[in-house]
Amino acid sequence: MMTDHNNKVGVQTLKGLLPLFKGLPLSRRKWKMSDRMYRTFLGVFLLVSLVFDLNWMMYGLIAMLIFEGLTNWRVPILLSKLFPKVFPLKPCAFHPYKIHHQFEAERAWRLLVGALLLVTYVFNLWFVPWFMAFAILGAGASGICPAAFSLKRIGFK
Question: How many structural domains compose the chain?
Fold first, then answer.
């Protein structure tokens, strides 16, 4: 049986964890589809496809990533254009690096991830897709994607 003190401690602990879920949809907040949220969903779907050995799901995610990279029709942008009141697009952060290419870093990231997943999944290098899925999930949860930062550092827009 929980006492009143234990209940207050639990509520304070939950309130302390709320900043960790700042980009995630909460009941009182407007749901925003950002690249951070996209990475979170992508990481979860990759892990689900790997855990349950769903080849069709993995190939579908790879095809979606490559399609988004080639056409630049990204899910967050499409959702914000189709449903602007439900999914407002968050503006990009300040880009402190010199731009050498007019190719967006997010687009290059999607092509890179799709190509790496395709090569490693086809040649049955089982540890690389698992590593990438956890890394993408971590990038979505933390909002820090070292691969995207590296691509921006190289000079992508």
Answer: 1
